[in-house]
Write a structure and sequence with these properties.
This protein has a single domain, classed as Hypothetical Protein Aq_1857, Chain: A, CATH 2.60.300.12. The protein has 3 helices and 8 strands, in the order ββαββββαββα. The chain is globular, with a radius of gyration of 15 Å. The N and C termini lie far apart (39 Å).
Length: 116
Amino acid sequence: MEIEVAAVEITNLAATKIRDIMNQQGEKDAAIRVVVVGMACSGPQYMMAFDKEQKADDVMMEMSGVKFLADPDTYGVLVGSKIDYVDDLMHQGFTIVNPNAAAGGCGEGCSCGGNH
């Protein structure tokens, strides 16, 4: 399945960094597969990896010249998210900000800090 208008946003910096990495690693024909790998207090935790094979039920999004693949469940979680690249004193790398998932917080017994 291909989506013409992506329900996910990518910043120019993130798209540039992804394209640079793809070129450096010889993966310019690949897509980026996004997978939810777990949940934390702040929402879903994601993993991104190169993938050259689109599965029959995958959703493909193309944003800023970068193709992304996600299974239907991951796509449902990603809707409304923004893929960004952070480069500051504390962190460097890609981040997916999902305001829909983060709004819920966590339930009883969360030990990740913050006010609940």
